[in-house]
Model the fold of this input.
Amino acid sequence: MSNINQDDLSSFPIGVFDSGMGGLTVLSALMDRLPHENMLYLGDTARLPYGTKSPGTVSRYALQAAAKLVERKVKMLVIACNTATASALDDLRKAWPDLPIFGVVGPGAQAACTTTRNGSIAVIATESTIRGGAYQRAIKEINPDAAVTGHACSLFVPLTEEGWMDGPIVEAVARRYLGALFDCDGAALEPMDDGQHGGNRKCLVPDCLVLGCTHFPPLAPTIRKVLGNEVAIVDSAATTAGAVENELARLGLLNSQSGPGEAHFMTTDDEARFARIGSLFLGRELSPRQVELVNL
Done:
């Protein structure tokens, strides 16, 4: 992009990708925060979910998705997938060192550390994200004293991709996942193995829940119903949008056009289904005519 005029580059779209439609929650936040920016979204629905796959496979898929966006000339890349951020962020930055690339884990961790009052934070995400410990490390880097509990909630992904955001089945799944996590007899016990406490464990129920998967925000009303009002619920979409805006401003790449930006959507499987379910994630109506089928 070094031979492209800066004014021309500023009108290039922001590229956003996810394993499916969950990243549309991030795209929605970006569109609200940056209404003059053009957006290019890719949902790799043919290979969903990423969260049950190995880190090597996730990285390979992420590189292929990013390459499709880069060939369409994007000025910035946003990985709107926590699993891909955890597994592939470094590989993507090595592949395109001159392209600003953002993941959602860092902003989500920052928001959690800012929100918690008692320093006890729970993270729910896919199996791969929890197993890799990306959120745990990111939170501890910001606040070494934080008590972080991670729990995989893999069934939330297919439920939301099916358009099931509420109802008795979704609530029952949420209660099954979250019950022990917010119970002092369960997973909220934090090991204290710093050599000063004799290996004892303390019980500190989390006061902050991080939605560590972009498929989870549409479930927030159900999760709130299960947890009540005492637990703060954090998702990284708004924080990521703010970080993107700041970086674009720093680089002089904010789009100066006065009118609203345009959004284009790509999927690797079934445009009609993407438009139907994607409308729920995006919070605005999508038509199949707005969605392009692509191969990776």
Summary: The first helix runs from residue 6 to 10. Residues 185-201 have pLDDT under 50 and may be disordered.
